[in-house]
From TrEMBL:
Record: residues binding UDP-alpha-D-glucose: E31, D60
GO MF annotations, alphabetized: cellulose synthase (UDP-forming) activity
Topology of the protein relative to the lipid bilayer: Multi-pass membrane protein
One GO BP: cell wall organization
Species annotation: Carya illinoinensis
Name of the molecule in the record: Uncharacterized protein
Cellular component aspect of the GO annotation: Golgi membrane
Recorded family membership: Belongs to the glycosyltransferase 2 family. Plant cellulose synthase-like E subfamily.
Length: 605
C-alpha cells in the first residue's frame, strides 16, 4: 500500500480534488474558541495544495467570541502555514506542536529562531482570545477589525438569530496569501439561522447546512467532517485518504474513509473506557466501518444520497474541479445565506432523510453511515501509524455517563426533549416496530387466556412485570453486588403471611397496597410520574406543531408513553387520590415528585 502511495502521489498531484473540511462547534463556554481554532489551523496546514482546501466552521453557538477567534486565526495562518511547510512540523495544531516541541532540542538555528518568534505570536493571540472569551463580549476596538461583527447587532440569543455567513479568506482575493506569497485555503464562518419554532437537529443539522453552503462556494467532491476538538495530527492523512478515492480499480466504490477516533487525553488504562477502536476494527470484514461522526472523509455525492452504480461512479476528478469562484466574497455570502435558513429544509424535506446526515437520532453518524452502505457504497477503515486525528475524551465520570446516556437515551425522555425514535405512522418502516409491540403482546395475551386467565389478570401481570423490573430486580442486583463485596450478609426477608383486616379487605378489592415507605416505591412512583410528565410534554409538542398524527414523528412514542401511563394508573391513585392507609406515604410522594422533576429538567436542558 505504502509504495503505491508514493507512486500515485506524483502522478496525481495535478489532478488532486478540491476538499471541503467541516469543523463543528456548539458552545464557546464548553468548547473554548482557542481550542476550536487550533483544529482549524491544523487542517488549513495540511500537506495539500492550499488552493484546493476549503475550511468551514459551523458555529451552533452563534457566538461573536468564536467568530473573533476565527478572525485571529485567519491572520495567524499567514505565518503558521509557511512555517509548517518549511520545517515539515508535526502536529500542525499550534497548541499541540508547542506543547511537544519544547521537549525536542533544535540543532537548526534558523528553525529555532523562527520557532520562538512564532511561538510568541501564537501565545499573544491565544492570550487575546482567552481574555476576550473570559470577558464574554467583544470590545469596540476589536469590532473595528472586521465588518462581520456588525452581524451581531441583530443577534437576540444563540437560539434566535439570522444566518451569519462570513468568508474570512477567499481564494479570489489577491490579499489571500501567506507571508511568502503562497495562496491560503479558503476559510468560512457559518452560524446557521436559529428560530425556536424550528428544530435545529443538533450536529446533523449543522453539517447539512454546511454541505449546502459549501456546494455553492467551493463544491469539493470530498468532504472531511471533524468535531472541533479533533485536530489533525498527521499532515499527510489528506493525501492518504484521497488515494483511496482515486484508486483506479476500486476507488469509485468508496463512499467514505473513516479514521479511528483517537484521544490525546486518555489515561494509560482509560478509566472511563472511552476508546472505541476495537469495535470499529471489527466492522472491516462487514462492508467496512460505520461513520463515527468525526475524522471521516466522505464522497460528497454519496453523502448527498446518490446510489452507487459501477459505471457512473468512475468519475473524472478533473471534471469536478471546474467549480470556479467567480463571484466576490460578498456576493457569495449574500446568495448562499438562504441555504442555511430554517425554512430551507421545509421545502426540501429530503434533507435529514435521503440527503446528508440523518435527523432524529442522537447517534446520527452511525445511521448515516449505514444508509450510505445501503446505497451500495463501501467504506474504508484507515489507521496509519502516526494517528490521523486526536481528540478529547470526556474527563469525568459524569461526562462519560451523560455521553452514553445520549447514545442510549430512554424513550420517554426523548419525547420530552424532542428526539423522535421511531418512524412516522405513515412510513412502511413502522411495521417492524408495530409487529414487536402489538403482535408480541397479543401473543402473550392469547397464551394467558388459553391457560385460563382473564384479560384483567394479564393486564395486571404486565404491570407487575414492569414494577418488578424497575424495583425488585434492580435492588436485588445491588444487594448481590454488596454481598459479593462483603458489605452485607445474605438475608431472607420472609414474606408476610398474615395481614391486618383492612389490608386484607383492600387486597380482596384488588386495590394495590403501598402503605410503607420503601425506596422501591420511590423508584416505581418516580418512573410513573416521569412517564406522565413526558406524555404531557409530548402531547404539547404535537398540539403546538399542528401536524396530523399520521405524519408526526412522535406518534408511536406518545402511544408507548400513554400505555405506560395507563398501566401506572394505580400508582397515581396511590400517590394523589387515595385516603386510606394503603396509599403512598407522603415522603414517597415528595421524593418521587422531586426526582421526576429533576430528570425532566435535565432532559429539557
Ligand atoms: O447542537 C449541536 C451539538 C453538537 N455539535 C457538535 O457536535 C460535535 C460532537 O459533540 P460532543 O459533545 O463532543 O459529543 P461526543 O459524544 O464527544 O461526540 C461523539 O458522538 C457524536 C454522536 O453522538 C458524534 O457526532 C461525534 O462525532 C462523536 O465524537 C462537537 O463538535 C459539537 O460542537 C453541534 O455542532 N451542534
Ligand atoms: Mn467530543
Amino acid at each position: 500500500m505504502l509504495i503505491n502511495f508514493g507512486r500515485k502521489r506524483s502522478r496525481y498531484e495535478e489532478a488532486l480534488p478540491n476538499i471541503d473540511i467541516f469543523v463543528c462547534t456548539a458552545d464557546p463556554m464548553i468548547e473554548p474558541p482557542a481550542m476550536v481554532i487550533n483544529t482549524v489551523l491544523s487542517v488549513m496546514a495540511y500537506d495539500y495544495p492550499p488552493q484546493k482546501l476549503n475550511v468551514y466552521l459551523s458555529d451552533d453557538g452563534g457566538s461573536d467570541l468564536t467568530f473573533y477567534a476565527m478572525v485571529e486565526a485567519s491572520s495567524f495562518s499567514k505565518i503558521w502555514l509557511p512555517f509548517c511547510k518549511k520545517f515539515k512540523v508535526e502536529p500542525r495544531s499550534p497548541e499541540a506542536y508547542f506543547r511537544t516541541a519544547v521537549l525536542e532540542p533544535l540543532e537548526d538555528p534558523v528553525k529555532a529562531k523562527e520557532r520562538s518568534s512564532i511561538k510568541k505570536s501564537y501565545e499573544g493571540m491565544k492570550k487575546r482570545i482567552e481574555t476576550t472569551t473570559k470577558l464574554g463580549r467583544i470590545s469596540e476596538e476589536i469590532r473595528k477589525q472586521h465588518k462581520g461583527f456588525r452581524e451581531w447587532n441583530s443577534v437576540a440569543s444563540r437560539r434566535y438569530h439570522q444566518t451569519i455567513l462570513q468568508i474570512l479568506v477567499h481564494a479570489k482575493d489577491p490579499k489571500a496569501v501567506d507571508i511568502e506569497g503562497q495562496p491560503l485555503p479558503t476559510l468560512v464562518y457559518l452560524a446557521r439561522e436559529k428560530r425556536p419554532q424550528y428544530h435545529h437537529n443538533f450536529k446533523a443539522g449543522s453539517v447539512n447546512a454546511l454541505i449546502r453552503v459549501s456546494s455553492r462556494i467551493s463544491n469539493g467532491p470530498i468532504i472531511l467532517i471533524l468535531d472541533c476538538d479533533m485536530y489533525s495530527n498527521n499532515s499527510e492523512s489528506m493525501r492518504d485518504a484521497v488515494c483511496f478515492f482515486m484508486d483506479e480499480e476500486k476507488g469509485h466504490e468508496v463512499g467514505f474513509v473513516q479514521f479511528p477516533q483517537s484521544f490525546e487525553n486518555l489515561t494509560k488504562n482509560d478509566v472511563y473506557g472511552s476508546s472505541l477502536n476495537v469495535e470499529i476494527h471489527g466492522f472491516d470484514g462487514n462492508g467496512g466501518p460505520c461513520f463515527i461522526g468525526t475524522g471521516c472523509f466522505h464522497r460528497r455525492n454519496a453523502l448527498c444520497g446518490q446510489k452507487y452504480s459501477d459505471q457512473e461512479c468512475k468519475e473524472n476528478w478533473k471534471g469536478w474541479n471546474d467549480i470556479k469562484m467567480e463571484e466576490t466574497a460578498s456576493v457569495l455570502e449574500d446568495t448562499s445565506k438562504v441555504l442555511a435558513s430554517c425554512t430551507y429544509e421545509e421545502k426540501y424535506a429530503q434533507w435529514g432523510n435521503e440527503m446528508g446526515l440523518k435527523y432524529g437520532c442522537p447517534v446520527e453518524d452511525v445511521i448515516t453511515g449505514l444508509a450510505i452502505q445501503c446505497r451500495g457504497w463501501r467504506s474504508i477503515y484507515f489507521n496509519p501509524e502516526r494517528k490521523g486525528f486526536l481528540g478529547l475524551a470526556p474527563t469525568t465520570l459524569l461526562q462519560t455517563l451523560i455521553q452514553h446516556r445520549r447514545w442510549s437515551e430512554v424513550p420517554s425522555l426523548c419525547l420530552l426533549s424532542g428526539i423522535p425514535l421511531f418512524p412516522k405512522i405513515s412510513s412502511a418502516w413502522v411495521l417492524p416496530f408495530a409487529f414487536v409491540i402489538i403482535v408480541h403482546r397479543a401473543y402473550s395475551l392469547g397464551e394467558f387466556v388459553w391457560c385460563g386467565g382473564t384479560f384483567q389478570g394479564w393486564w395486571n401481570e404486565q404491570r407487575m412485570w414492569l414494577f418488578k423490573r424497575i424495583s425488585s430486580y434492580f435492588f436485588a442486583f445491588i444487594d448481590n453486588i454488596l454481598k459479593l463485596m462483603g458489605f452485607t450478609d445474605s438475608a431472607f426477608a420472609i414474606t408476610a403471611k398474615v395481614a391486618e383486616t383492612d389490608v386484607s379487605q383492600r387486597c380482596e378489592q384488588e386495590l394495590m397496597e403501598f402503605g410503607a415507605s420503601s425506596p422501591m416505591f420511590t423508584v416505581i412512583a418516580t418512573m410513573a410520574l416521569l412517564n406522565a410528565f413526558c406524555f404531557v410534554g409530548g402531547m404539547k409538542r404535537v398540539l403546538m406543531d399542528m401536524q396530523s398524527w399520521f405524519s408526526n414523528p412522535f406518534t408511536l412514542q406518545i402511544l408507548l408513553c400513554a400505555l405506560l401511563v395507563i398501566i401506572s394508573l394505580p400508582v397515581y391513585q396511590g400517590l394523589f387520590l387515595r385516603k386510606d392507609e394503603g396509599r403512598m406515604p407522603s415522603s414517597v410522594t415528595q421524593w418521587s415528585l422531586m426526582f421526576a422533576a429533576l430528570a425532566c429538567a435535565l432532559a429539557c436542558y
